[in-house]
Design a protein that fits this description.
By secondary structure, the protein is an alpha+beta fold. The chain folds into 2 domains: 2-286, no CATH class; 295-463 and 506-512, no CATH class. The protein has helices spanning 7-24, 53-62, 72-79, 82-97, 106-111, 137-144, 147-150, 212-221, 226-229, 231-235, 252-255, 312-322, 332-339, 372-382, 430-440, 447-451, 464-477, 484-502, and strands at 46-50, 115-120, 129-135, 156-163, 171-180, 183-190, 193-197, 246-251, 266-273, 280-286, 304-308, 342-350, 360-365, 396-399, 405-407, 410-420, 423-427, 460-462, 507-511, 520-527. The protein has a 20-stranded antiparallel sheet that branches. Helix 2 (53-62) runs antiparallel to helix 3 (72-79), helix 12 (312-322) runs antiparallel to helix 13 (332-339) and helix 13 (332-339) crosses helix 14. The longest helix has 19 residues, at 484-502. The two termini are 23 Å apart. It holds the Pfam family DUF2138. This is DUF2138 family protein. It comes from Pelomonas candidula.
Amino acid sequence: MQRKWMVVAGLATVAVVAAGAVMLGARGRFSGHINALGVALDEPAAYVATPSLTALSRDLVKAPVLRNLLTEDFAFYYETHEDRLGLAGAVKRVAFEHDTTWKDDLIALALDQPSEVALWADKRGAARHWALAMTRDALARVIQGVGQIAASDAQLTLIANVPLATFSFETVPVYALQLSPRRTLAIASRGNRVVVLSDPGLLFDDARKPDREAAAVLGSLLSGDAKDQGLWRRHFALSDAPGAAHTLVAGGDLLALGYQRFFPALQALRVDVAPGGTALNTWVKQGSDWPASPWAALPAQAAACAALPVNWVQARQVLAGADGKPKAGDAGPALAEMARAFDGPAAICWYGASQLHTPLLVAHASGPAPSAQTLQAFMQWWLPKQAAWSPGDKTAIVDAPYGAKKQGEDVGYEMAFRRAGDWWLFSPDAALVAKAEDAIARRFPSVADTLGAGAKAAIATATPSQIAELMRREALAVLPVEQGDFRQAAETLLFPRLASFGKLPAAQAVPAGARDANGWTALRWQPVSATP
């Protein structure tokens, strides 16, 4: 169990979002042409395949490590959520008012069987849009028989008959089921296949016209051909058919918070949970090998660290694109020179003594240090306008809310960007950069000193005790005493879970073997030294 604790970071995020989103739903009903905002139904940001949606949250509670962190309330929450209760109530009302033979346990039966869920990020970056695909004989027959009901029901209505493919004359009716003024589902069925969308806007535009590409995806999901149905699995390079385990996948763009352009090698994180929660395994999908170890440049006593497989060719394009923009002025040549200085490995670390939003980033450098004029041009382009900085300065002061640096009545950040040996160092907390300089000069122990023989292979590290304390302090910072209800909820529900999390041992993630043919690498979790 000690080797697997770190999965909490990825699993808790993916599982809560994925399992919960099925019931939580998305934005308001018919909110417009969502696909025009970049949602491609064949390219989800996250994916869940489960033998039972009902069992998913229950098995997570029983899984190794998670059983010490989650409570039964986690499972009960999704079973009693207002959207699930609203759906069950809507089914009962329609059955009663229209004198159908629908069973009261129709929804429970539908959720207690194999299902696939795909999720997409909304414009805020949260995975709130979802689609559920499943094979259900009884439910499919019910949906295919609601045409007459929809003609006279206020809550269940026909949106349109949607063509399933560009060159096909076959159409399928898509119904809107309004659960509340804030929530409307779109439902379609063909044969024994059923697809539920969290919002009609995933399929239609604001004129109720189906998007051609989205309709083609719907046709594949409703197909009787298993190969057509597997388009979400192919997107994540998974096996052709789901297995007996719960599989949860988060794509690289979701993990990178929208910055995957800089980390294209990080493609996805996957967690497999065995039925009953008896076993838990983690995998990472990368498009290339991880870079050389960056751990010697990072000071020890970190709360969490991760190697960053940065694509510096693409990163240089960002600086190249800045040439000629108002803020860059005539700094184009200087920015290009600065861009060429970066190569090789990079990493990010958070420290318990700092803040959640002030991590330390390091990146390897090559060649001579840039001139003072080049550095000045780069910093002028990069830093906020209000930052006071010159080449001789070791730090720059930026006024901003929630900063730890206090100057009189103002708060802000004392950030630093410096080169030490072959490394560039940056943090909004200048103290972390100074400590990194000490680690590189061997005046202070580094993360590499705590990893031992596994330092070269490790791709991530974490110390739960520091993470828990950091999260607790950050929660209290945004929950002042006057927000009594929220603060009480945090102290009652969040802080005990953080305390349990903090008791887990420090660990490092190491690849367990080579990548498979699809690019997936199994991860092994090993303990690290508590002190360097």
